[in-house]
Amino acid sequence: MTDIAGKVVWITGASSGIGEAMAYEASAAGAKLVLSARRQAELERVRSACAHPQNVALLPADLTDFDADSLHDRAVAFFGPVDVLVNNAGISQRSSVMDTSMAVYRRIFELDFFAPVALTKAVLPGMSARGQGHIVAISSVVGYLGTPQRSGYAAAKHAVQGFFDSVRAESWRSGVKVTIVCPGYIRTNVSINAITASGERHGLMDRGQEKGMDAQRCARKIWSAVAADREEIVIGKEALAVLVKRFAPRLASFALKRAKVT
Predict the structure, then answer these.
(1) Catalytic positions, please?
(2) Measured distance CA(99)–CA(105) in Å, rounded
(3) pLDDT tens-digit profile of 14-35?
(4) How confident is the model at residue 211 (pLDDT cuts 50, 70, 90)?
(5) Could you give all domains of the chain from N- to C-terminal order, each with its CATH number?
(6) Would you give the DSSP letter of residue 211?
(7) Which of 212, 207, 111 is nearest to 152 (CA)?
(8) CB proximity list for 19: less than 8 A, separation 6 or greater
(9) Largest CA distance in the chain
(10) What gap in Å lies between CA 18 and CA 25, rounded to an integer?
(11) Residue 59, SS3?
């Protein structure tokens, strides 16, 4: 069991959405938090809303252009070694394959895949040496199946699934645990902040996102999965799509080809 009370928890993408909600839940549970995102002002807002703001440190960073070892050293300087790393920062996409520039694909992979890889490699030696630690990777239902207008996002999340499965397979003997989280539609600004074919901000709330699960409820489910040392969890009614993909792939393909997405 992983109890986060008194533990040092580093959350990326903590200025909004799932990351923000996870910060509130972890603070209420008694964790010491290091929160990272690009926007200092939004991190300040999140810290002030936490149950124990005195135990919340802010570490602003642009995870598309950073030195992971240096950032890790700065994170450790606040409260000591990182016990739990939550790789949550990411960006979604709203554009077709034919229209999307390679620069957009590379930008998505820098944040959604290479950043969590780099941060995981930075914390893993210390966790292994101490014989304990927990790495949480926020993937997505599209880590199992690709949908229209999400080719880069789906590819990055598929890569996240494969990488963290391998991390788990390599690190379990040293006491390091890995939980992969695959949310469906969660009511956040992920669609508003998604990037288009040219790299511009989408700026629109998707219908599915608008009707999605509350982010705080999602955060509670994630922390429950971490506490139970779950290796993987799919959150939301979209879990059904994962089962269909696995056991009735032709039906899943039929549905995905006709999916109405923006």
Answers:
(1) 153
(2) 11
(3) 999 999 999 999 999 999 999 9
(4) confident
(5) 8-257 (3.40.50.720)
(6) T
(7) 111
(8) 11, 12, 13, 35, 37, 86, 88, 89, 138
(9) 53
(10) 11
(11) coil
Reduce the DSSP state of residue 228 to 3 states and report it: coil
The answer to whether the CB of 34 falls within 8 A of the CB of 79 is: yes
Helix 151-171 to helix 115-130 angle (10° resolution) is 10
For 257, other C-beta atoms within 10 Å of its C-beta total 9
Burial 152-188 (b: 16+ CB within 10 A, else e): bbbbbbbbbbebbeebbeebeeeebbbbbbbbbbbbb
Give residue for tokens 């880590």.
Answer: 143
Two structure tokens written together for 244? 């269909």
CB 149 within 8 A of CB 94: yes
Among residues 156, 162, 145, 36, the alpha carbon closest in space to that of 108 is found at: 156
First and final C-alpha spacing in the chain: 40
Distance CA 219, CA 159 (A): 23
- With beta carbons less than 8 A apart as the criterion, state whether 85 and 123 touch: yes
Residue 1: per-residue pLDDT: 65
